[in-house]
Amino acid sequence: MTEDTETRDTGRPLRVGTRRSALARAQTEAFCARMPGWPHAVEIVPITSQGDTTTASLASLGGTGVFVTALREALLAGQIDVAVHSAKDLPTAPCPGLSIAAFPTREDPRDLLVAGAPLAQLPAGARIGTGSPRRRAQLLRRRGDLEVVDIRGNIDTRIGRVLAPRSPSERLDGVVLAGAGLARLGRTGDAVEHLDLREWPTAPAQGALAVETRTHSEAHRVVATLDDPATRQAASVERAVLRLLEAGCAAPLGVSVLEADAATGEREVLARVYALDGSGVVESRGRLHPDALQDAEVHEVARGIVADLLDQGAADLAPLHGTP
Ligand SMILES: NCc1[nH]cc(CCC(=O)O)c1CC(=O)O
What is the pLDDT of residues 105-139, one digit of tens each? Predict the structure, then answer.
């Protein structure tokens, strides 16, 4: 592959592609504000993706990468130099010619509940919205009496169904959302409960951004200065569990790195696969040494966890591959 002859050398700004949703724009702007040369040497380019234009349920779209394909195509076609993705939306399969130049410092990886009261205090039969099979299983496991409603839409729309429903049939008692998304939109104040990762591990790489570039490019070198090794380690091990389970983004899998033991600096990886109705769960844990930053080391930890989950019957408990 030849080096791109672009950007700084020619004086052209780095073109940073973003999806058009409010969340995508907010996270792209937050990232760009940390780029060397911002704002003069950076230009934000909105790109439309199928995941933003369809109202079909996320599970029914079935594909990994509905949010990502358009940005990747624009990168490969040279229309943009940098693509800012939510790391949890990025398929685990590598894309030839592209690589993740940076995982910037992660935000809150937890899920939050927006509702009138914390989960334990909601009335019997409360209606909680989520489109995620993992969140559905976790909700039902915690409270078998809840009615889980399949919803889609951007964060404002989802919160609106709790705080300002347009009709009685739209009304929900609560929604579960990624804390990082709420934080990026300045809406964490709407949450009544932060769901503790030890009881509620989340989607692989939730709360992290993955910033992709063409592998051999000036943009790659610039963006790599914003990589955070601890975030890369956590996102990589969580994504490796997903990949080695051969699971899709709709699998009822929660996997989260829990922050370091103060004495040893070691981090713990917690992975759970749930039955879709919350009736069962298998769990595995691994240890992550803070210096284990090589791909092979991270992969080894994930491999151990996945072997353990499969030994315990994870593949019989839950549909890992396709949509249920
Ligand atoms: N599934 C869509 C999606 N992709 C990334 C985020 C939130 C931000 C993040 O996790 O980085 C969300 C919304 C949500 O799950 O509530």
Answer: 999 999 999 999 999 999 999 999 999 999 999 99
Verdict on whether the full-model pTM lies above 0.80: yes
Residue 289's contacts (CB-CB under 8 Å, 6 or more residues apart) are: 265, 266, 297
66 Cα–ligand 1 center, Å: 13
Q: Which fold has domain 7-104+208-227?
A: D-Maltodextrin-Binding Protein; domain 2 (3.40.190)
b/e for 76-94, b at 16 or more Cβ within 10 A? eeeebbbbbbbbbbbbbee
From the CB of 204, is ligand 1 less than 6 Å away?
no
* Complex ipTM over 0.85: yes
- Ligand 1 binding pocket mutation candidate from 206, 211, 238, 239 (most atoms within 8 A of CB): 206
For 238-317, which CATH class?
alpha beta
- Cα(88) to centroid of ligand 1, in Å? 7
Q: Which fold does the domain 111-194 belong to in CATH?
A: D-Maltodextrin-Binding Protein; domain 2 (3.40.190)
User: Is pLDDT at 8 greater than 50 in this prediction?
Assistant: no
